[in-house]
Amino acid sequence: MDPLTDARDLVLSRFPHATWAILTGSVLGPSRTAGSDLDIVVLQEEAPGFRESLRFRGWPVELFIQTPAQLTEFLARELAQRKPSTHRMIAHGVPLLGDPADLTTRCAQVLAAGPPPLSPAEHDHLRYALTDLLDDHLHATDPGERTVIATTLWTETARAALAFAARWQSTGKWLLRELRDHDADLATRWLAARDNPAALATEILDRVGGPLFDGYRAQAPGPTA
């Protein structure tokens, strides 16, 4: 099956008046699998935007329909969360209709630059949260609870390693991809530590000043307007 032809035909039948549309995701690259879907981002003037899942010519399809205002909001929110999913889709997409042009370049530049460094408050909060999880794991006596805590600690250890290094965040397979891109050896050791992540979590904390509990203080948020 030809993903570009099928994706283009779907867009032309559903969104002929769109400003632009792109095909993106693993279906275009070496990580494509038998289950890869057609990830299609469409920009159109008509509101509302939406996300829709469907099948077309045997393909699973994920449609991400955006208006200009909604796309601007999505991109800003992702920067604040340090999780550039939409930036990545646009930067690596192939045009099906129209052309996002300078937006593709801007998204690629954002990806290459990486996220802003953690503020001192964010840095301390992350140290505290990982310390708290590590303490729960070390002192858990219920086998079921210990398993659940270990899973959470394992995931948060990877996320913390990326955040402390001013790298992008992600979830699922992209969490591993980001970690491998940052430090391949660390990614290998992280995978091996799945069932007992305490030592690796301690290592990550030691890189940034060690566990944090005594003296930690978080400022309460101010009133909203």
How are the elements arranged and paired?
Blueprint: H1 3-14, E1 20-24, E2 38-43, E3 50-56, E4 59-66, H2 68-81, H3 85-91, E5 94-97, H4 102-113, H5 120-139, H6 143-164, H7 172-182, H8 184-192, H9 198-207
Helix pairs in contact: 3-4, 5-6, 5-9, 6-7, 6-9, 7-8
Which CATH C-level class of the largest domain is it? Answer: Alpha Beta
Element-by-element helix/strand order: HEEEEHHEHHHHHH
In round numbers, the mean pLDDT is 94
CATH topology of the largest domain: Beta Polymerase, domain 2
N→C terminal distance: 54 Å
CATH architecture designation of the largest domain = 2-Layer Sandwich
Total helical elements: 9
Largest sheet: 5 strands, mixed
Number of strands: 5
Q: What ranges have pLDDT less than 50 throughout 5 or more consecutive residues?
A: none
Proportion in helices: 40-55%
Strand order of the largest sheet: 3-4-2-1-5
Q: Helix/strand-derived class?
A: alpha+beta
Number of domains: 2
- Cα-atom Rg, whole angstroms? 21 Å
Instruction: Estimate the strand proportion.
Output: 5-15%
Shape call: elongated
Give the name of the CATH superfamily of the largest domain.
Answer: Beta Polymerase, domain 2
Q: Can you characterise this structure?
A:
By secondary structure, the chain is of the alpha+beta class. Strand 3 and strand 4 form a beta hairpin. It is built from 9 helices and 5 strands. The chain folds into 2 domains: 111 residues, Beta Polymerase, domain 2; 88 residues, no CATH class. The chain is elongated. Helix 5 packs antiparallel against helix 6.
